[in-house]
């Protein structure tokens, strides 16, 4: 068995990250019934759910609330149909999604040095600043 180079290992890890992101996005599209708490498909809350699930997986409430600058309780209210995310909150969520997409693209297409790929894949991105 031959040993892979650092670049090959980084590329493999990037592919794993991309597959996980694709799976999360697919799960978000096929959001399962959660006891009647799913908002209508065309609402801002439904869009928030799809973005958030793709970004953070099943336990997205806290991360989404932090990203949008609201409380977790507010996110729960939106999920129950009591109001919807405002344009500012959705803009923060879209900004986060675009940032993640750029990061994944850079890693997958080799636009990032191997050491930076390792930092991204192992340590995760630090994205809370500057929002």
Detailed description of the structure:
With 131 residues, the chain is mainly α. The chain has one domain. The chain has 6 helices and no strands. The protein has helices spanning 6-29, 44-56, 61-68, 72-79, 87-108, 114-123. Helix 1 (6-29) runs antiparallel to helix 2 and helix 1 crosses helix 6 (114-123). The protein starts with 5 loop residues before the first helix and ends in an 8-residue tail after the last helix.
Task: Give a summary of the structure in a few sentences.
The protein is mainly α.
Task: Reconstruct the topology from this structure.
Blueprint: H1 6-29, H2 44-56, H3 61-68, H4 72-79, H5 87-108, H6 114-123
Helix pairs in contact: 1-2, 1-6, 2-5, 3-4
- The backbone outline, from C-alpha atoms, is elongated
End-to-end Cα distance: 46 Å
How many strands? 0
Count of DSSP H/I helices = 6
Overall mean confidence score, pLDDT: 75
Helix content: 55-70%
Share in β-strands: under 5%
Structurally, the number of domains stands at: 1
The major beta sheet can be summarized as:
none
Q: Give the helix/strand class.
A: mainly alpha
Order of helices and strands: HHHHHH
As residue ranges, the low-confidence spans are: 32-36, 126-131
Radius of gyration using CA atoms only: 17 Å
Structural features:
131 residues; mainly alpha; 6 helices; 65% helix; 0% strand; elongated
